[in-house]
Design a protein that fits this description.
single chain; 623 residues; Chitobiase, domain 2; 5 domains; 6-stranded antiparallel beta sheet; 13% helix; elongated; S-layer protein; S_layer_MJ
Length: 623
Protein backbone atom coordinates (compact mmCIF):
# COMPACT_ATOMS: atom_id res chain seq x y z
CA UNK A 1 0.00 0.00 0.00
CA UNK A 2 2.83 2.36 0.89
CA UNK A 3 4.61 1.42 -2.33
CA UNK A 4 1.50 2.30 -4.35
CA UNK A 5 1.25 5.75 -2.74
CA UNK A 6 4.98 6.28 -3.27
CA UNK A 7 4.73 5.40 -6.97
CA UNK A 8 1.75 7.80 -7.40
CA UNK A 9 3.65 10.66 -5.83
CA UNK A 10 6.69 9.85 -7.98
CA UNK A 11 4.53 9.92 -11.10
CA UNK A 12 3.18 13.30 -10.14
CA UNK A 13 6.68 14.59 -9.49
CA UNK A 14 7.95 13.29 -12.83
CA UNK A 15 4.96 14.93 -14.51
CA UNK A 16 5.90 18.25 -12.95
CA UNK A 17 9.49 17.92 -14.13
CA UNK A 18 8.25 16.88 -17.56
CA UNK A 19 5.94 19.87 -17.83
CA UNK A 20 8.44 22.40 -16.57
CA UNK A 21 11.46 21.18 -18.48
CA UNK A 22 11.14 23.88 -21.14
CA UNK A 23 9.45 26.59 -19.08
CA UNK A 24 12.64 28.64 -19.23
CA UNK A 25 12.13 29.12 -22.97
CA UNK A 26 9.18 31.46 -22.34
CA UNK A 27 9.73 35.22 -22.44
CA UNK A 28 10.71 36.24 -18.94
CA UNK A 29 9.45 32.82 -17.65
CA UNK A 30 6.02 34.35 -16.87
CA UNK A 31 4.27 31.26 -18.26
CA UNK A 32 5.00 27.57 -18.75
CA UNK A 33 5.68 25.92 -22.12
CA UNK A 34 4.98 22.14 -22.06
CA UNK A 35 7.75 19.85 -23.28
CA UNK A 36 7.48 19.14 -26.98
CA UNK A 37 5.73 22.44 -27.74
CA UNK A 38 7.29 25.71 -28.88
CA UNK A 39 7.18 29.11 -27.21
CA UNK A 40 4.48 31.44 -28.59
CA UNK A 41 7.22 33.99 -29.34
CA UNK A 42 7.93 31.88 -32.44
CA UNK A 43 4.34 32.19 -33.78
CA UNK A 44 4.35 34.18 -37.04
CA UNK A 45 1.73 36.79 -37.96
CA UNK A 46 0.55 34.49 -40.77
CA UNK A 47 -0.73 32.05 -38.10
CA UNK A 48 -3.45 34.56 -37.23
CA UNK A 49 -4.17 36.38 -40.52
CA UNK A 50 -4.12 35.55 -44.24
CA UNK A 51 -2.23 37.72 -46.77
CA UNK A 52 -5.54 39.37 -47.77
CA UNK A 53 -6.20 40.44 -44.17
CA UNK A 54 -8.90 37.85 -43.40
CA UNK A 55 -8.63 35.69 -40.25
CA UNK A 56 -6.63 32.46 -40.52
CA UNK A 57 -7.50 31.10 -37.09
CA UNK A 58 -10.42 29.73 -35.09
CA UNK A 59 -10.72 30.00 -31.30
CA UNK A 60 -11.97 26.78 -29.70
CA UNK A 61 -13.75 26.82 -26.33
CA UNK A 62 -14.38 23.62 -24.42
CA UNK A 63 -17.82 22.07 -24.01
CA UNK A 64 -17.23 22.11 -20.25
CA UNK A 65 -15.78 25.62 -20.20
CA UNK A 66 -16.33 27.95 -17.30
CA UNK A 67 -17.43 31.56 -17.80
CA UNK A 68 -13.80 32.69 -17.43
CA UNK A 69 -12.79 30.53 -20.42
CA UNK A 70 -15.57 32.04 -22.54
CA UNK A 71 -14.45 35.54 -21.54
CA UNK A 72 -10.85 34.65 -22.40
CA UNK A 73 -11.92 33.48 -25.87
CA UNK A 74 -13.85 36.73 -26.41
CA UNK A 75 -10.82 38.79 -25.36
CA UNK A 76 -8.54 36.93 -27.78
CA UNK A 77 -11.10 37.42 -30.60
CA UNK A 78 -11.17 41.15 -29.85
CA UNK A 79 -7.35 41.29 -29.93
CA UNK A 80 -7.36 39.63 -33.36
CA UNK A 81 -9.37 42.53 -34.70
CA UNK A 82 -6.30 44.78 -34.43
CA UNK A 83 -4.39 42.78 -37.09
CA UNK A 84 -7.19 41.90 -39.53
CA UNK A 85 -6.17 44.24 -42.33
CA UNK A 86 -4.28 44.28 -45.60
CA UNK A 87 -1.76 46.91 -46.63
CA UNK A 88 -2.08 48.30 -50.15
CA UNK A 89 -0.33 51.07 -52.02
CA UNK A 90 -2.33 54.20 -51.33
CA UNK A 91 -3.92 55.99 -54.27
CA UNK A 92 -5.53 59.40 -54.71
CA UNK A 93 -3.80 60.67 -51.58
CA UNK A 94 -4.33 64.14 -50.21
CA UNK A 95 -2.78 65.88 -47.24
CA UNK A 96 -4.92 67.94 -44.88
CA UNK A 97 -3.39 71.08 -43.38
CA UNK A 98 -5.12 72.34 -40.27
CA UNK A 99 -4.56 75.65 -38.51
CA UNK A 100 -6.36 77.00 -35.47
CA UNK A 101 -6.87 80.70 -36.05
CA UNK A 102 -7.25 83.31 -33.35
CA UNK A 103 -10.66 83.59 -31.76
CA UNK A 104 -13.11 85.60 -33.83
CA UNK A 105 -13.77 89.18 -32.78
CA UNK A 106 -17.53 89.55 -32.56
CA UNK A 107 -17.48 93.25 -31.75
CA UNK A 108 -14.75 95.83 -31.14
CA UNK A 109 -15.54 99.36 -30.06
CA UNK A 110 -13.00 102.12 -29.37
CA UNK A 111 -14.61 103.89 -26.39
CA UNK A 112 -12.03 106.67 -25.89
CA UNK A 113 -9.67 108.18 -28.44
CA UNK A 114 -7.31 111.11 -28.08
CA UNK A 115 -5.17 111.92 -31.13
CA UNK A 116 -4.77 114.39 -33.99
CA UNK A 117 -7.99 113.32 -35.76
CA UNK A 118 -10.25 113.48 -32.71
CA UNK A 119 -8.84 116.91 -31.82
CA UNK A 120 -9.27 118.43 -35.27
CA UNK A 121 -12.36 116.57 -36.54
CA UNK A 122 -14.45 115.69 -33.47
CA UNK A 123 -13.48 118.74 -31.39
CA UNK A 124 -12.84 121.16 -34.28
CA UNK A 125 -9.65 122.49 -32.68
CA UNK A 126 -7.71 124.88 -34.96
CA UNK A 127 -4.08 124.14 -35.76
CA UNK A 128 -2.71 127.40 -34.43
CA UNK A 129 -4.38 127.55 -31.03
CA UNK A 130 -6.13 124.45 -29.68
CA UNK A 131 -3.31 121.97 -30.41
CA UNK A 132 -0.78 123.84 -28.31
CA UNK A 133 -2.51 122.26 -25.27
CA UNK A 134 -1.72 118.76 -26.53
CA UNK A 135 -1.32 116.46 -23.49
CA UNK A 136 2.18 115.43 -22.53
CA UNK A 137 1.26 112.74 -19.93
CA UNK A 138 -1.55 110.48 -18.74
CA UNK A 139 -2.59 112.97 -16.08
CA UNK A 140 -3.21 115.65 -18.73
CA UNK A 141 -5.54 113.52 -20.90
CA UNK A 142 -8.89 115.35 -21.27
CA UNK A 143 -12.21 113.99 -19.98
CA UNK A 144 -14.39 114.64 -23.03
CA UNK A 145 -12.95 112.29 -25.65
CA UNK A 146 -15.25 109.35 -24.86
CA UNK A 147 -17.39 107.96 -27.68
CA UNK A 148 -20.96 109.31 -27.88
CA UNK A 149 -22.23 106.99 -30.63
CA UNK A 150 -21.16 109.32 -33.42
CA UNK A 151 -17.93 111.01 -32.28
CA UNK A 152 -15.42 111.23 -29.46
CA UNK A 153 -16.91 114.21 -27.66
CA UNK A 154 -18.62 113.00 -24.47
CA UNK A 155 -17.51 112.27 -20.89
CA UNK A 156 -17.26 108.92 -19.07
CA UNK A 157 -20.55 109.20 -17.18
CA UNK A 158 -22.55 109.81 -20.35
CA UNK A 159 -20.68 107.07 -22.22
CA UNK A 160 -21.25 104.45 -19.47
CA UNK A 161 -24.95 105.25 -19.12
CA UNK A 162 -25.55 105.00 -22.85
CA UNK A 163 -23.27 102.07 -23.77
CA UNK A 164 -24.99 99.57 -26.01
CA UNK A 165 -23.72 96.65 -28.07
CA UNK A 166 -25.90 94.36 -30.16
CA UNK A 167 -24.82 91.49 -32.38
CA UNK A 168 -26.28 88.37 -33.91
CA UNK A 169 -24.90 84.86 -34.33
CA UNK A 170 -26.27 82.79 -37.21
CA UNK A 171 -25.60 79.26 -35.89
CA UNK A 172 -25.92 78.77 -32.15
CA UNK A 173 -28.47 76.15 -31.05
CA UNK A 174 -30.34 73.16 -32.44
CA UNK A 175 -33.72 71.45 -32.50
CA UNK A 176 -33.64 67.67 -33.02
CA UNK A 177 -30.01 67.87 -34.12
CA UNK A 178 -30.41 70.66 -36.70
CA UNK A 179 -28.09 73.55 -35.78
CA UNK A 180 -29.99 76.33 -37.54
CA UNK A 181 -30.95 78.61 -34.67
CA UNK A 182 -28.95 81.78 -34.10
CA UNK A 183 -28.76 84.14 -31.13
CA UNK A 184 -29.59 87.80 -30.58
CA UNK A 185 -27.29 89.30 -27.94
CA UNK A 186 -27.77 92.73 -26.38
CA UNK A 187 -25.39 94.32 -23.83
CA UNK A 188 -26.31 97.53 -22.01
CA UNK A 189 -25.01 99.53 -19.07
CA UNK A 190 -21.38 98.44 -19.22
CA UNK A 191 -19.03 100.39 -16.92
CA UNK A 192 -15.43 100.25 -15.71
CA UNK A 193 -14.12 99.41 -12.25
CA UNK A 194 -10.58 100.91 -12.09
CA UNK A 195 -7.56 99.00 -10.82
CA UNK A 196 -4.82 101.39 -11.94
CA UNK A 197 -4.98 104.17 -10.95
CA UNK A 198 -6.96 103.14 -7.88
CA UNK A 199 -8.00 106.75 -7.24
CA UNK A 200 -9.36 107.16 -10.77
CA UNK A 201 -11.56 110.26 -11.04
CA UNK A 202 -13.48 109.29 -14.15
CA UNK A 203 -11.69 111.57 -16.60
CA UNK A 204 -9.29 109.74 -18.91
CA UNK A 205 -9.77 105.95 -19.17
CA UNK A 206 -8.10 103.88 -16.42
CA UNK A 207 -4.90 102.10 -17.47
CA UNK A 208 -6.23 98.84 -15.99
CA UNK A 209 -9.84 98.11 -15.08
CA UNK A 210 -12.41 95.39 -14.66
CA UNK A 211 -15.53 95.41 -16.79
CA UNK A 212 -18.73 95.68 -14.77
CA UNK A 213 -22.12 94.74 -16.20
CA UNK A 214 -25.11 95.32 -13.91
CA UNK A 215 -27.88 92.86 -13.25
CA UNK A 216 -30.13 92.59 -16.32
CA UNK A 217 -27.40 94.20 -18.40
CA UNK A 218 -27.10 91.29 -20.87
CA UNK A 219 -29.89 89.63 -22.81
CA UNK A 220 -29.41 86.50 -24.94
CA UNK A 221 -32.45 85.38 -26.91
CA UNK A 222 -33.13 82.44 -29.23
CA UNK A 223 -36.00 82.41 -31.72
CA UNK A 224 -37.15 78.80 -32.30
CA UNK A 225 -39.33 79.62 -35.30
CA UNK A 226 -37.55 78.33 -38.38
CA UNK A 227 -37.95 80.15 -41.67
CA UNK A 228 -37.29 79.53 -45.30
CA UNK A 229 -35.80 82.79 -46.60
CA UNK A 230 -34.06 84.14 -49.65
CA UNK A 231 -30.89 86.17 -50.04
CA UNK A 232 -30.05 88.20 -53.14
CA UNK A 233 -26.44 87.79 -54.23
CA UNK A 234 -24.99 90.33 -56.64
CA UNK A 235 -21.61 89.16 -57.96
CA UNK A 236 -19.19 90.60 -60.52
CA UNK A 237 -18.49 87.84 -63.02
CA UNK A 238 -16.43 90.02 -65.37
CA UNK A 239 -14.52 93.18 -64.56
CA UNK A 240 -14.83 96.26 -66.72
CA UNK A 241 -12.02 97.21 -69.12
CA UNK A 242 -13.01 100.74 -70.19
CA UNK A 243 -9.88 101.25 -72.31
CA UNK A 244 -11.15 98.56 -74.66
CA UNK A 245 -14.80 99.35 -74.20
CA UNK A 246 -15.54 96.14 -72.27
CA UNK A 247 -18.31 96.75 -69.73
CA UNK A 248 -18.63 95.17 -66.31
CA UNK A 249 -20.86 92.08 -66.17
CA UNK A 250 -22.78 91.23 -63.00
CA UNK A 251 -24.78 88.18 -62.03
CA UNK A 252 -27.71 88.63 -59.67
CA UNK A 253 -29.03 85.41 -58.13
CA UNK A 254 -31.51 84.55 -55.41
CA UNK A 255 -30.33 81.92 -52.93
CA UNK A 256 -32.68 80.01 -50.61
CA UNK A 257 -31.61 79.48 -47.01
CA UNK A 258 -33.01 78.17 -43.72
CA UNK A 259 -32.64 79.82 -40.34
CA UNK A 260 -34.33 81.71 -37.52
CA UNK A 261 -34.87 85.47 -37.27
CA UNK A 262 -31.24 86.11 -36.25
CA UNK A 263 -30.01 84.44 -39.44
CA UNK A 264 -32.55 86.29 -41.58
CA UNK A 265 -31.49 89.67 -40.18
CA UNK A 266 -27.78 88.89 -40.34
CA UNK A 267 -28.12 87.87 -44.02
CA UNK A 268 -30.51 90.75 -44.82
CA UNK A 269 -32.85 88.08 -46.15
CA UNK A 270 -36.53 87.99 -47.08
CA UNK A 271 -38.80 85.48 -45.33
CA UNK A 272 -40.67 83.18 -47.73
CA UNK A 273 -42.44 80.91 -45.25
CA UNK A 274 -42.34 79.12 -41.90
CA UNK A 275 -40.74 75.66 -41.86
CA UNK A 276 -41.22 74.97 -38.16
CA UNK A 277 -43.33 77.03 -35.71
CA UNK A 278 -41.16 76.11 -32.72
CA UNK A 279 -40.23 73.36 -30.27
CA UNK A 280 -42.98 70.85 -29.39
CA UNK A 281 -43.37 68.19 -26.71
CA UNK A 282 -41.12 65.23 -27.50
CA UNK A 283 -38.52 67.39 -29.25
CA UNK A 284 -34.94 67.77 -28.10
CA UNK A 285 -33.40 71.21 -28.32
CA UNK A 286 -30.27 72.98 -27.11
CA UNK A 287 -30.15 76.25 -25.22
CA UNK A 288 -26.67 77.77 -25.21
CA UNK A 289 -25.23 74.32 -25.91
CA UNK A 290 -27.08 72.32 -23.22
CA UNK A 291 -29.47 69.68 -24.63
CA UNK A 292 -32.98 69.40 -23.22
CA UNK A 293 -35.86 66.98 -23.82
CA UNK A 294 -39.29 68.65 -23.80
CA UNK A 295 -41.99 66.72 -21.96
CA UNK A 296 -44.80 69.28 -22.27
CA UNK A 297 -45.44 72.85 -23.45
CA UNK A 298 -47.75 75.30 -21.67
CA UNK A 299 -48.69 78.95 -22.03
CA UNK A 300 -45.38 80.81 -21.56
CA UNK A 301 -43.93 77.73 -19.84
CA UNK A 302 -42.59 74.27 -20.64
CA UNK A 303 -41.42 71.17 -18.76
CA UNK A 304 -38.05 69.77 -19.83
CA UNK A 305 -35.01 67.93 -18.57
CA UNK A 306 -31.38 67.76 -19.54
CA UNK A 307 -30.54 64.81 -21.84
CA UNK A 308 -27.97 62.68 -20.00
CA UNK A 309 -27.48 60.03 -22.66
CA UNK A 310 -28.14 56.33 -23.33
CA UNK A 311 -25.94 53.32 -22.59
CA UNK A 312 -25.83 49.52 -22.38
CA UNK A 313 -25.25 48.06 -18.91
CA UNK A 314 -24.23 44.47 -18.11
CA UNK A 315 -25.44 42.76 -14.96
CA UNK A 316 -23.37 43.75 -11.90
CA UNK A 317 -21.58 46.39 -13.98
CA UNK A 318 -21.25 49.94 -12.59
CA UNK A 319 -20.94 52.64 -15.23
CA UNK A 320 -21.51 56.37 -15.61
CA UNK A 321 -24.57 57.45 -17.57
CA UNK A 322 -23.10 59.57 -20.36
CA UNK A 323 -21.19 62.56 -19.02
CA UNK A 324 -23.53 62.98 -16.07
CA UNK A 325 -22.74 62.66 -12.37
CA UNK A 326 -24.83 59.48 -12.03
CA UNK A 327 -23.26 56.01 -11.81
CA UNK A 328 -25.67 53.13 -12.51
CA UNK A 329 -25.33 49.48 -11.47
CA UNK A 330 -27.55 46.86 -13.10
CA UNK A 331 -28.20 44.34 -10.31
CA UNK A 332 -30.85 42.29 -12.10
CA UNK A 333 -32.77 41.93 -15.36
CA UNK A 334 -35.70 39.79 -16.47
CA UNK A 335 -36.31 39.85 -20.24
CA UNK A 336 -39.52 37.78 -19.82
CA UNK A 337 -41.05 40.32 -17.45
CA UNK A 338 -39.43 43.22 -19.39
CA UNK A 339 -37.94 44.74 -16.26
CA UNK A 340 -34.60 45.58 -14.70
CA UNK A 341 -33.41 46.54 -11.22
CA UNK A 342 -30.75 49.21 -10.74
CA UNK A 343 -29.03 51.18 -8.02
CA UNK A 344 -27.72 54.70 -8.59
CA UNK A 345 -24.84 56.63 -7.00
CA UNK A 346 -24.62 60.42 -7.11
CA UNK A 347 -20.85 60.77 -7.59
CA UNK A 348 -21.12 64.43 -6.60
CA UNK A 349 -22.45 63.70 -3.10
CA UNK A 350 -21.75 59.97 -2.71
CA UNK A 351 -25.42 59.29 -1.94
CA UNK A 352 -26.89 55.93 -3.04
CA UNK A 353 -30.44 55.55 -4.42
CA UNK A 354 -32.50 52.43 -5.08
CA UNK A 355 -32.91 49.63 -5.80
CA UNK A 356 -35.29 50.96 -8.46
CA UNK A 357 -37.38 48.75 -10.75
CA UNK A 358 -37.43 49.88 -14.39
CA UNK A 359 -40.19 48.69 -16.73
CA UNK A 360 -39.50 48.53 -20.46
CA UNK A 361 -40.51 51.78 -22.15
CA UNK A 362 -41.76 53.41 -18.95
CA UNK A 363 -39.91 56.41 -17.40
CA UNK A 364 -39.11 56.01 -13.70
CA UNK A 365 -38.34 58.91 -11.37
CA UNK A 366 -35.36 57.69 -9.33
CA UNK A 367 -34.24 60.89 -7.55
CA UNK A 368 -36.73 63.66 -6.73
CA UNK A 369 -36.02 66.90 -4.87
CA UNK A 370 -39.00 69.19 -4.33
CA UNK A 371 -40.49 70.16 -7.68
CA UNK A 372 -37.44 68.92 -9.58
CA UNK A 373 -36.87 65.38 -10.81
CA UNK A 374 -33.10 65.17 -10.48
CA UNK A 375 -32.88 61.82 -12.27
CA UNK A 376 -35.35 59.96 -14.45
CA UNK A 377 -34.39 56.62 -16.03
CA UNK A 378 -36.04 54.72 -18.86
CA UNK A 379 -35.42 51.08 -19.82
CA UNK A 380 -35.11 51.13 -23.61
CA UNK A 381 -34.19 47.50 -24.37
CA UNK A 382 -33.20 44.15 -22.82
CA UNK A 383 -31.03 41.42 -24.29
CA UNK A 384 -28.87 38.38 -23.55
CA UNK A 385 -25.16 38.37 -24.42
CA UNK A 386 -23.05 35.20 -24.66
CA UNK A 387 -20.18 36.81 -22.82
CA UNK A 388 -21.79 39.45 -20.60
CA UNK A 389 -25.06 37.70 -19.79
CA UNK A 390 -28.13 39.92 -19.33
CA UNK A 391 -27.69 43.47 -20.60
CA UNK A 392 -30.00 46.47 -20.47
CA UNK A 393 -30.11 49.69 -22.49
CA UNK A 394 -30.96 52.62 -20.23
CA UNK A 395 -31.47 56.31 -21.02
CA UNK A 396 -31.72 59.16 -18.55
CA UNK A 397 -32.83 62.76 -18.06
CA UNK A 398 -31.77 65.12 -15.30
CA UNK A 399 -33.12 68.22 -13.58
CA UNK A 400 -36.63 67.85 -15.02
CA UNK A 401 -38.74 70.85 -14.04
CA UNK A 402 -41.12 73.45 -15.36
CA UNK A 403 -39.53 76.57 -16.84
CA UNK A 404 -41.41 79.86 -17.09
CA UNK A 405 -40.63 83.55 -17.16
CA UNK A 406 -38.65 84.32 -14.02
CA UNK A 407 -37.15 80.82 -13.64
CA UNK A 408 -33.54 81.01 -12.51
CA UNK A 409 -30.98 78.86 -14.35
CA UNK A 410 -27.24 78.42 -13.93
CA UNK A 411 -24.80 78.74 -16.82
CA UNK A 412 -21.08 78.64 -16.17
CA UNK A 413 -21.57 79.43 -12.47
CA UNK A 414 -23.61 82.54 -13.31
CA UNK A 415 -27.30 83.04 -12.43
CA UNK A 416 -29.58 83.90 -15.34
CA UNK A 417 -33.32 84.60 -15.46
CA UNK A 418 -35.37 82.97 -18.19
CA UNK A 419 -38.19 84.48 -20.21
CA UNK A 420 -40.39 82.03 -22.13
CA UNK A 421 -42.56 82.71 -25.17
CA UNK A 422 -44.83 79.69 -25.80
CA UNK A 423 -48.46 79.19 -26.84
CA UNK A 424 -49.34 75.86 -25.22
CA UNK A 425 -48.17 73.90 -28.25
CA UNK A 426 -44.83 75.35 -29.30
CA UNK A 427 -41.93 77.10 -27.61
CA UNK A 428 -41.50 80.17 -29.81
CA UNK A 429 -38.51 81.73 -28.11
CA UNK A 430 -36.41 81.84 -24.95
CA UNK A 431 -34.44 84.78 -23.56
CA UNK A 432 -31.91 84.87 -20.72
CA UNK A 433 -30.80 87.91 -18.74
CA UNK A 434 -28.07 87.99 -16.09
CA UNK A 435 -29.33 88.06 -12.49
CA UNK A 436 -25.92 88.74 -10.91
CA UNK A 437 -23.66 91.71 -11.52
CA UNK A 438 -20.78 90.48 -13.68
CA UNK A 439 -17.27 91.78 -12.98
CA UNK A 440 -13.89 90.87 -14.48
CA UNK A 441 -11.33 91.52 -17.19
CA UNK A 442 -11.47 89.45 -19.23
CA UNK A 443 -15.11 88.83 -18.37
CA UNK A 444 -16.50 85.40 -19.29
CA UNK A 445 -20.09 85.33 -20.53
CA UNK A 446 -21.90 81.96 -20.53
CA UNK A 447 -18.60 80.22 -21.39
CA UNK A 448 -19.26 81.37 -24.97
CA UNK A 449 -17.97 84.95 -25.12
CA UNK A 450 -15.22 86.96 -23.48
CA UNK A 451 -15.37 90.73 -23.02
CA UNK A 452 -12.04 92.56 -22.63
CA UNK A 453 -11.04 96.12 -21.80
CA UNK A 454 -7.68 97.50 -22.93
CA UNK A 455 -5.93 100.89 -22.73
CA UNK A 456 -3.01 101.99 -24.89
CA UNK A 457 -0.98 105.22 -24.66
CA UNK A 458 2.00 106.20 -26.85
CA UNK A 459 4.24 109.25 -26.94
CA UNK A 460 6.26 110.92 -29.68
CA UNK A 461 9.00 113.58 -29.35
CA UNK A 462 9.10 116.51 -31.76
CA UNK A 463 12.91 116.35 -31.95
CA UNK A 464 12.79 112.64 -32.91
CA UNK A 465 10.69 113.34 -35.99
CA UNK A 466 11.77 116.97 -36.61
CA UNK A 467 8.12 118.04 -36.80
CA UNK A 468 6.06 120.68 -34.95
CA UNK A 469 3.46 118.23 -33.54
CA UNK A 470 1.44 120.77 -31.51
CA UNK A 471 1.69 123.48 -34.18
CA UNK A 472 3.02 126.20 -31.84
CA UNK A 473 5.58 127.40 -34.36
CA UNK A 474 8.72 125.66 -33.00
CA UNK A 475 10.22 122.17 -32.73
CA UNK A 476 11.26 121.45 -29.15
CA UNK A 477 12.46 118.47 -27.11
CA UNK A 478 8.90 117.70 -26.01
CA UNK A 479 6.90 114.45 -26.19
CA UNK A 480 3.16 114.40 -26.77
CA UNK A 481 0.84 111.46 -26.08
CA UNK A 482 -2.02 109.76 -27.89
CA UNK A 483 -4.37 107.34 -26.15
CA UNK A 484 -7.03 104.76 -26.98
CA UNK A 485 -9.32 102.58 -24.86
CA UNK A 486 -11.15 99.63 -26.42
CA UNK A 487 -13.93 97.19 -25.52
CA UNK A 488 -13.60 93.87 -27.42
CA UNK A 489 -15.99 90.93 -27.49
CA UNK A 490 -14.51 87.63 -28.65
CA UNK A 491 -15.76 84.09 -29.14
CA UNK A 492 -14.12 81.72 -26.66
CA UNK A 493 -13.38 78.91 -29.13
CA UNK A 494 -10.94 79.49 -31.99
CA UNK A 495 -11.96 78.62 -35.54
CA UNK A 496 -10.10 75.75 -37.20
CA UNK A 497 -9.21 76.29 -40.85
CA UNK A 498 -8.48 73.27 -43.03
CA UNK A 499 -6.83 73.03 -46.45
CA UNK A 500 -6.62 69.82 -48.50
CA UNK A 501 -3.68 69.50 -50.90
CA UNK A 502 -3.15 66.85 -53.58
CA UNK A 503 -0.11 66.00 -55.67
CA UNK A 504 0.78 69.01 -57.81
CA UNK A 505 -0.73 71.61 -55.47
CA UNK A 506 1.37 74.46 -54.17
CA UNK A 507 1.78 74.81 -50.41
CA UNK A 508 0.38 78.29 -49.58
CA UNK A 509 2.95 80.83 -48.44
CA UNK A 510 5.89 78.83 -49.80
CA UNK A 511 7.57 77.95 -53.09
CA UNK A 512 7.02 74.25 -52.46
CA UNK A 513 4.76 71.99 -54.52
CA UNK A 514 3.40 68.63 -53.32
CA UNK A 515 5.40 66.22 -55.50
CA UNK A 516 4.25 62.94 -53.97
CA UNK A 517 3.96 60.83 -50.83
CA UNK A 518 6.54 58.25 -49.78
CA UNK A 519 5.78 55.12 -47.79
CA UNK A 520 2.06 55.77 -47.52
CA UNK A 521 0.00 52.60 -47.28
CA UNK A 522 -3.74 52.14 -47.38
CA UNK A 523 -5.09 49.76 -44.73
CA UNK A 524 -8.03 47.66 -45.92
CA UNK A 525 -9.86 46.52 -42.78
CA UNK A 526 -11.26 42.98 -42.95
CA UNK A 527 -14.30 42.44 -40.74
CA UNK A 528 -14.90 38.71 -40.07
CA UNK A 529 -17.97 37.36 -41.87
CA UNK A 530 -17.87 33.99 -40.09
CA UNK A 531 -17.70 33.22 -36.35
CA UNK A 532 -14.16 33.16 -34.95
CA UNK A 533 -15.16 31.11 -31.91
CA UNK A 534 -16.19 27.43 -31.97
CA UNK A 535 -17.01 24.75 -29.42
CA UNK A 536 -14.65 21.78 -29.32
CA UNK A 537 -17.49 19.58 -30.62
CA UNK A 538 -17.87 21.79 -33.74
CA UNK A 539 -14.32 21.32 -35.07
CA UNK A 540 -14.24 19.50 -38.41
CA UNK A 541 -11.20 17.21 -38.28
CA UNK A 542 -11.67 16.13 -41.88
CA UNK A 543 -11.51 19.67 -43.21
CA UNK A 544 -9.37 21.92 -41.04
CA UNK A 545 -9.43 25.17 -42.95
CA UNK A 546 -7.55 27.31 -40.46
CA UNK A 547 -5.23 27.29 -37.48
CA UNK A 548 -6.57 26.89 -33.96
CA UNK A 549 -6.29 28.53 -30.57
CA UNK A 550 -7.49 26.10 -27.90
CA UNK A 551 -8.74 27.82 -24.74
CA UNK A 552 -9.03 25.88 -21.48
CA UNK A 553 -7.34 22.97 -19.72
CA UNK A 554 -7.67 19.32 -20.74
CA UNK A 555 -10.52 18.98 -18.22
CA UNK A 556 -12.57 21.72 -19.93
CA UNK A 557 -11.62 21.34 -23.62
CA UNK A 558 -11.87 17.96 -25.37
CA UNK A 559 -9.55 19.10 -28.16
CA UNK A 560 -6.90 20.16 -25.65
CA UNK A 561 -7.20 16.75 -23.98
CA UNK A 562 -6.64 14.99 -27.34
CA UNK A 563 -3.58 17.16 -28.04
CA UNK A 564 -2.17 16.32 -24.59
CA UNK A 565 -2.60 12.62 -25.27
CA UNK A 566 -0.98 12.91 -28.70
CA UNK A 567 2.06 14.76 -27.36
CA UNK A 568 2.29 12.76 -24.11
CA UNK A 569 1.68 15.74 -21.87
CA UNK A 570 0.63 15.20 -18.23
CA UNK A 571 -3.15 15.19 -17.98
CA UNK A 572 -3.40 15.23 -14.19
CA UNK A 573 -4.30 18.83 -13.36
CA UNK A 574 -2.55 18.52 -9.96
CA UNK A 575 0.83 18.87 -11.70
CA UNK A 576 -0.15 22.36 -12.91
CA UNK A 577 1.14 24.82 -10.36
CA UNK A 578 -1.88 26.82 -9.13
CA UNK A 579 -2.31 30.11 -10.99
CA UNK A 580 0.64 29.62 -13.34
CA UNK A 581 -0.51 30.16 -16.99
CA UNK A 582 0.42 27.61 -19.67
CA UNK A 583 1.05 28.52 -23.31
CA UNK A 584 2.43 26.32 -26.08
CA UNK A 585 2.70 26.37 -29.88
CA UNK A 586 2.53 23.45 -32.30
CA UNK A 587 3.45 24.61 -35.85
CA UNK A 588 1.93 21.54 -37.53
CA UNK A 589 -0.50 19.33 -35.65
CA UNK A 590 -1.19 16.03 -37.46
CA UNK A 591 -4.47 15.63 -35.53
CA UNK A 592 -5.79 18.76 -37.27
CA UNK A 593 -4.58 18.24 -40.81
CA UNK A 594 -1.18 19.79 -40.21
CA UNK A 595 -2.63 23.11 -39.06
CA UNK A 596 -0.97 25.17 -36.34
CA UNK A 597 -2.22 25.09 -32.76
CA UNK A 598 -1.76 27.36 -29.74
CA UNK A 599 -2.65 25.99 -26.31
CA UNK A 600 -4.05 28.58 -23.85
CA UNK A 601 -4.56 26.81 -20.54
CA UNK A 602 -4.01 26.64 -16.80
CA UNK A 603 -4.89 24.58 -13.73
CA UNK A 604 -7.75 27.01 -12.99
CA UNK A 605 -9.92 29.32 -15.12
CA UNK A 606 -8.06 32.24 -13.55
CA UNK A 607 -4.75 30.83 -14.77
CA UNK A 608 -6.25 30.38 -18.25
CA UNK A 609 -7.28 34.06 -18.24
CA UNK A 610 -3.69 35.02 -17.43
CA UNK A 611 -2.51 32.92 -20.38
CA UNK A 612 -5.11 34.60 -22.62
CA UNK A 613 -3.91 38.04 -21.52
CA UNK A 614 -0.30 37.15 -22.41
CA UNK A 615 -1.41 35.93 -25.86
CA UNK A 616 -3.45 39.13 -26.40
CA UNK A 617 -0.37 41.22 -25.66
CA UNK A 618 1.66 39.16 -28.14
CA UNK A 619 -1.02 39.62 -30.86
CA UNK A 620 -1.11 43.38 -30.21
CA UNK A 621 2.63 43.50 -30.85
CA UNK A 622 2.12 42.05 -34.34
CA UNK A 623 -0.04 44.95 -35.58
Amino acid sequence: MMMKGFMKALALLMGVVFLLSTAGASAGSNYMVPTGLKDISTVPRSFFVNPDGTPNVKIVVGSYARAEDVASAADIAAALGSILYKEEEAKDIAVKLRKASETDVVLQQVVYRYDYDTMTIDHNLPYNSGLINWSKSYDELPADYWYNGAGYTTNYTTWASSFSAQFKVKVGDSVNGNYLYGWDIDIKGLSLSPIDPADWDGTAPPKQADIKIPSRGISVSVDYTLYNYTVVKDEIVREAYPEWGVPEERNVTTESRIGNSAAVEKDNGTIVGVISPGVAAGDEFTLLGIKYHVFSVGANSFTAGEVLGTGWFAQNESKMLGNSRWKITLIGANPLEESAIVTVVDTKTGEIYGPAVLKLGEPTNVVVSGDTIELQLKLEALSENLILGKIAQISGYGDIKTYSSGTEVDYGGQRWLMSVDSDGQYIKGIALTNEDELVGNPLNILNIYTIEYSFEMKSLNEKDVEFDINRDGSITDTSYVVAKATITILENNPKVNELVLSVGDKVPGTDYVVAGFDGVKNLVIRTPTQPLTLLDTEVNFASSGSNYILVGSNRANLLTSMIFGRYHLPTDFRVWFGEYPVLGYIPKCDLLGGKGVIIVAGATPEATRKAATILMQYIAGLS
